[in-house]
Design goal:
Organism (chain B): Billgrantia bachuensis
Shape of chain B: globular
Order of helices and strands of chain A: HHHHHHHHHHHHH
Shape of chain A: globular
Strand content of chain A: under 5%
Keywords (chain B): Signal, Transport
CATH architecture of one domain in chain A: Orthogonal Bundle
Family (chain B): Belongs to the bacterial solute-binding protein 5 family.
Structural class of chain A: mainly alpha
Number of helices of chain B: 17
Distance between the termini of chain A: 25 Å
CATH class of one domain in chain A: Mainly Alpha
Oligomer: heterodimer
CATH topology of the largest domain in chain B: D-Maltodextrin-Binding Protein, domain 2
Protein name (chain B): Peptide ABC transporter substrate-binding protein
CATH topology of one domain in chain A: MetI-like fold
Largest sheet of chain B: 5 strands, mixed
Helix content of chain A: over 70%
Pfam families (chain B): SBP_bac_5 (PF00496)
Strand content of chain B: 15-25%
């Protein structure tokens, strides 16, 4: 980071461990953060390797008895169509991850761009963008999601679209505030005096300074996004059947809970673990990377 | 399970019975009003029941849905009503007697002393005339229920004659004892609406044993005793109807004691039987609903009859029912349930279908690898069946996309009045309610109904002819044959694959009530008795 690089004193006699090693040590001292990391690695790993792990095609019906209990063939039992719940849970993780990655990266990039423009641009543009962002934020997320799903029809893309649209204002506002704080810093003024273009100032000098907190914010939003996807799917407004999603598995399980408790357990536990994992990890990262916040605490 | 007894509404028999009852009362020297009060129950208490949907229309002339009629049954009176029990019979309600003079004339006399609330006075033949004729005059969406009604002649305050243009058999099975048969106050309705049209959700006056006390949309409908009611005292002081769409939620509400009467789903029937909640009685009734897979014959992808036949033959009905109803529902042969006039012994296509034949049809149409879409209601049994259907059609190379819809959006898909979505509709998993006359099923599939309730846009001249003629035929066997042919025509069009009539299990707490239902299990709340 340019700002901190300039303050570092040269030629220190004792060489300190690198920043990454320090962060890793800090994380190791935080048991909850470490647990979070393990859970996240497990979730992401299983989602990435889903195609290798699953024993059955998650959409294939009647691979076992309907609503069967866990057996060696079907580790988490089977659902109401005799599909293997374990395969569906693993593939459901992939769906959750795709939704989280796609929607958050879309929201991040657009939010970053809009925030930079609003924070650095002329006042009328700032006001206009703020009005727009606040109007979008004013919609309750679930109500907005239900309305959009009714208009566009339920699908994976709709879920991604909804999450992206509702997350953009949050990121854009954070970036805007940061940009406004940085725009009058001396190194920016110096760069301006040297005749640098706005694009260069934003891209090379301001963006690297705002992207850190933004990434932490995004990592803490992952569980929210996963829960939203699961929630919409639970309401039958998320992914299309037979695409497996934790929300759909949970909903089906709820519908047949009188017949078998296993689908609810199989659909519910990954949502809980993933949410916990990302929350713990996010909080630990925030503590590590945001010293100001730590002092405040 | 209560046996499915043959449907027999013997008009002469019940006229005889009612005449004998009246004669008996008169012979005993008892004034009619006293005889009515003598039939009073012990009374008291609150009845807490569940309806699968919230009310959205309380004008009986424009009733639309069965769950609205459940409430209307309590707050209005009609000439005759369905007799609670396991056989399809009717008995007198507001009428002292009613008789068929000839095939097109039905003469009735009202009981004296039935009062409208709000000071609108006594129910007269003039109110009956108004209530029946406004259905035709104002072009009600359910005017077909009144078929060929010409007019009602008023003879005196209590006596009148219903005059039909042509004979109409469903009159006794559907029209009079169901929705449009309810009688409203002419004066009150004219005051409220000026032209006597649809008064929607604001009944200006009541004429039943209960009045609508409060309606909190999507929360509760509260009915209370009508203080001006002079007929037999109803069992409960108050009826609270909770709209709960999801059957699982209703089952949970019943188990936790929030409800004392609810229908349950077939998939949990076994669970209830093996582990019944305390004081609970489980009753199974054959239901009249019909569930089918429909295809939009005007959609470009489905215009070729061979594509539709391929879908028909690829569907394995027992397999679908197994996942949707846990093997508790039987395969339907058409839309007319067993026990009703016009029931078919078997469908043209065997329940299991035939994949080879399906592939052949698809090849003939040159539509291999086609992708289709099905709209289903957001309810577990339908989505489960749709997913099984997806697997079945996959076997002949058809990719099926499933669009799960919430009720608001689902029930307007094929309606031309609600937008252009009917054009894009391809397959639909449909479930319609039914009353005990085959006319009520076929009449929604005529050319005139295309874009209204006929979402498959099936239109066949012969079908329409038969549909118009069958309501006038009095010979039961001849009539049945016509309805069988109509169902054949529907099936031959390739646009329909009939699945099941479901079943109608319900549970109630015997420590609280003795319920009263139609033979198909639909509740008649005004006859529920407290224990």
């Amino acid at each position: 980071m340019p700002a901190t690089d300039m303050t570092r004193s040269e030629g220190q006699p004792m060489r300190e461990p690198s920043a990454w090693v320090q962060h890793w040590r800090q994380l190791c001292r935080n048991p909850l953060g470490l647990l979070g990391l393990i859970l996240v690695v497990l979730m992401v790993g299983s989602a990435l390797l889903a195609n290798v792990i699953v024993p059955y095609d998650p959409a294939q019906v009647m691979v076992g008895p309907r609503l069967g209990p866990p057996t060696w063939h079907n580790l988490m039992g089977t659902d109401q169509l005799g599909r293997d719940t374990f395969s569906r849970v693993i593939m459901g993780g992939q769906v959750a991850l795709i939704v989280a990655l796609a929607s958050l990266s879309a929201a991040l990039s657009l939010g970053l761009l809009l925030g930079l423009v609003a924070g650095f641009g002329p006042r009328w543009l700032d006001n206009g963008l703020l009005l727009l962002l606040d109007s979008v934020r004013a919609f309750p997320v679930i109500i907005f999601a239900l309305a959009v799903v009714t208009l566009l029809g339920p699908s994976l893309y709709t879920v991604v679209f909804v999450v992206a649209i509702t997350s953009i204002p949050v990121y854009a506002r954070v970036v805007r505030t940061q940009t406004q704080a940085l725009r009058d810093h001396e190194y920016v003024l110096a760069e301006r005096a040297m005749g640098a273009s706005t694009r260069r100032i934003l891209g090379v000098h301001i963006m690297p300074n705002v992207i850190g907190p933004l990434l932490i914010l995004a990592s803490m939003d992952v569980p929210l996004v996963i829960a939203l996807e699961a929630g919409l799917s639970f309401l039958g407004m998320g992914v299309r059947p037979p695409t497996p999603s934790w929300g759909t598995i949970l909903n089906n399980g709820y519908n047949y809970i009188q017949n078998s408790p296993w689908p609810v357990i199989a659909g519910g536990i990954p949502i809980i673990l993933t949410t916990l994992g990302f929350t713990f990890l996010g909080e630990a990262l925030r503590d590590i990377f945001d010293p100001k916040l730590r002092r405040d605490l | 399970m209560k046996s499915r007894k043959g449907y027999s509404l013997n008009r002469r028999e019940f006229l005889q019975t009612s005449a004998m009852t009246t004669a008996g009362i008169m012979a005993a020297g008892m004034p009619l009003s006293q005889a009515i009060w003598a039939a009073e129950g012990s009374g008291g208490g609150v009845l807490r029941v569940r309806s699968y949907a919230d009310i959205n229309k309380l004008d009986p002339g424009f009733y639309q849905n069965a769950y609205n009629v459940d409430v209307m049954n309590c707050i209005y009176s009609k000439l005759i009503h369905y007799k609670p029990g396991s056989e399809w019979e009717t008995e007198l309600q507001a009428a002292e007697w009613i008789e068929q003079v000839d095939p097109t004339h039905i003469r009735f006399k009202l009981r004296e002393g039935i009062m409208f609330t709000g000071g609108y006075g006594e129910m007269t033949a003039e109110d009956v005339k108004f209530s029946f004729e406004r259905v035709i005059e104002h072009n009600s969406p359910v005017k077909d229920d009144w078929g060929p009604l010409d007019h009602v002649e008023v003879e005196d305050d209590y006596t009148g004659v219903i005059v039909l243009k042509s004979p109409f058999e469903p009159l006794w099975n559907v029209t009079l004892p169901y929705g449009v048969g309810h009688i409203v106050s002419k004066k009150a309705v004219l005051e409220a609406t000026e032209d006597g049209g649809d008064f929607g959700m604001e009944p200006p006056s009541f004429s039943g044993p209960y009045v609508l006390d409060e309606w909190r949309p999507n929360q509760v409908v509260i009915l209370k005793r009508n203080p001006e009611w002079t007929g037999p005292k109803p069992g409960f002081d108050e009826i609270r109807i909770l709209p709960i769409g999801d059957p699982r939620t209703a089952e949970t509400a019943y188990r936790s004691g929030d409800l004392d009467f609810t229908h349950i789903s077939l998939s949990t029937l076994d669970e209830f039987k093996s582990d019944p909640p305390q004081d609970t009685v489980i009753e199974e009734r054959p239901s009249l609903y019909y569930v089918y897979v429909g295809m939009n014959t005007e959609n470009p992808k489905l215009q070729d009859i061979n594509v539709r036949r391929a879908v028909q033959w690829a569907i394995n009905v027992p397999q679908l029912l197994d996942v949707g109803y846990f093997g508790q529902a039987e395969v339907a042969t058409g839309m007319v349930a067993p026990g009703l006039v016009g029931h078919r012994e078997q469908a043209l296509i065997p329940p299991e279908g035939d994949l080879e034949k399906a592939r052949e049809y698809l090849r003939e149409a040159g539509a291999e690898g086609i992708s289709l879409r099905i709209d289903v209601l957001n309810e577990s049994k339908f989505t489960a069946m749709a997913e099984m259907l997806q697997a079945q059609l996959g076997q002949i190379g058809i990719t099926l996309e499933i669009d799960v819809q919430d009720p608001g959006s689902f029930w307007s898909i094929g309606m031309e009045s609600e937008g252009d979505r009917w054009q894009e509709m391809e397959l639909i998993l449909q479930r319609f309610s039914m009353v005990p006359d085959p006319y009520y099923a076929t009449t929604f599939f005529t050319c005139e109904q295309v874009g209204n309730w006929n979402w498959e846009r099936f239109c066949n001249e012969r079908f329409d002819e038969l549909n118009a003629e069958a309501v006038t035929v009095q010979d039961e066997e001849e009539r049945a044959e016509m309805y069988r042919e109509m169902q054949d025509l529907l099936e031959e069009s390739g646009a329909y694959r009939f699945l099941t009539h479901e079943g109608s299990p319900f549970v109630y707490r015997e420590s609280v009530m003795t319920p009263a239902t139609r033979p198909d299990g639909r509740p008649l709340f005004r006859f529920f008795d407290p224990v």
